[in-house]
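Risk register update: the risk of archive-format incompatibility is retired. Evidence:
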Amino acid sequence: MSNRRSILVIKYIVLSAGAIIMLFPFYWALSTSFRELRDILFDPYSLVPRNPTFANYLSIFNKAPFGRYLLNSLIVASATAFLQITTASLSAFAFARMKFRGREIIFIVFLATMMIPQQILMIPQYIVVMRLGMGDSYAGLVLPYAATAISIFFLRQFFRTIPKDLEDAAIIDGCGPLRILLNVFIPLAKPAIATLSVFAFMWSWNNYFWPLLIIDSTEMRTIQLGLALFRTEGGIQWGEFMAGTVVATLPILIVYFIAQKQFIKGITLTGMKG
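Archived output:
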């Protein structure tokens, strides 16, 4: 009994230390966002603001249309997540349940695309987007990432855990493939869909390089491009930069906490069956 308690105490100590290490950068960013630039430069390692101020938060909205940047990122991230869920649901159902010639070969080709570095695809994607006249637009930001192999693979793994008897019962009731997907698989796959939504939203929200390539106007900048404005020739305006970082992080935290229960359930259940 004493050995079990000792092991349990050690586990809690290790987990607590890991949590502190993970949370410290967030705390440092939050603390820095309430500090004046002079305070930061003369005492950069201080963890507590001497004279807390909201000036940095006011400054980021005065110097740039930060609200517009937030709205652009919200539209792009939400649309990307929605389209990825839609395309992944249809494709995953076909790969998991429908039988057709070459299904396994096509699926292997889909998985093989995951091995291609994203940087290699940037130039072809840029050329296609520009020739279609989608530069500096929401469509150019969203459509290249409307479908991904990882989302299809992720949802396919979950669909394969759903009992075949439910599908057979739906067929007996006269349901076609689309109705089976909408009425049987989608309701049962809420944990996996929530997990996929969080991943897709977070990835799109934090994407910097692609918007940098195709966005020219100030009105279409995303939040990540907006944060780059606080890097000047004289250096980074750390107070304003951290204030913008905190504001940019809040939507991701809100999305995660809303879908937290389903997110954890989805991660747990998706890998139950190969």
